[in-house]
Amino acid sequence: MTATVSNFHYGAVTPVAAYLMACLGAALGLRCTTRSLRRPHRRAGWLALGAVAIGCGIWTMHFIAMIGFSVQGALVSYDPTKTLLSLGVAIAVVAVGVFLVGYRGGSAVNLGVAGTVTGIGVAAMHYLGMAAIHTTGGLHYDTWTVALSVVIAVAAATAALWAAVSIHKLWASLGASLVMGVAVTGMHYTGMAAVSVHLTGQSAVSQSSTSLLSFLLAMLAGPLTVLLIAGAIVMFDPDMMLGDDEWDRPAYPPHGTGSDFPAHRPAQPSQPYSS
After folding, report:
1. Of 130, 134, 201, 255, whose CB is crowded by the most CB atoms within 10 A?
2. pTM for this model (two decimals)
C-alpha cells in the first residue's frame, strides 16, 4: 500500500527555518573564503572553517526540513550512525571543492570539476540521510526526479564555489548566499518529491512522534553550535571592519613586521620646503 507522504507537517516553519540555515552556512562560507584570499599565510585554516560552515549549513538545512517529513499511518525513526555519517560526507565533499578553488583558482575547468564533485557529494549526503530512515515500509524513488535533484546540486555547488572566489564585497556575498539558499533548499525538496513510501505494516500513529523530534533536535545541536562559533570568528575578525573599497589593499604587511594589519606609513611631503 502506498502511504500519503508530507514534507510540511508543521506548515511553513520547517522550510523557512531550513532555508535560513542554508543561507547562514553559505554566508559564513563565502566570508571565510574571502578571508583566505586576503590572508594566504592562513589560507588553509580559513578554507577549512568555510567548508565546515557550508557543510554544517547544508546538513542542518536537510534535517530541519526532515522534521516536517511524515508518513501517514507509520512511525518514522532514524539510524544515528548513518545520520552522523551524512554530516561527515557533507563537510568532506564541500572541503574538496573549497580547497580546489581556494588553491587552484576559479578557472572554468577547475570550477567544473570542483562543482561536480561537490554537487554529487551533497546529493550523496541527502540520499544517505534518507537511507537512515526507518519506517514500516520501503522508500522508493522516481529516477528522473532524483537525476534532476543531482543536477540542481551540481549547479548550486558550482555557483557557490564561483561566488566564493569571485564575490568579495560584503553585501554582494550576502545576496549570493540568499540565492544559494534557494538552490540548496530547492535541491532538497526536489529530492523529497521523488520519494514514495510503500507500507508493509500499519501503525496507529499518523504523525511524527515526540521522540523523533527530540532525536532530530539533539542531532542538530552540534552543527548549530559549530555555525554559531564560526559566525563569532567571522564577526570578530579584523577584516569585518574594512569597507568594500579596501579589498585591493594588502591584507598583511611586508615580511618581518609581525602584524596581520596593513602597514601604515606616515605621510611624507611631496617636495622639500624651500629656504
Report:
1. 130
2. 0.80
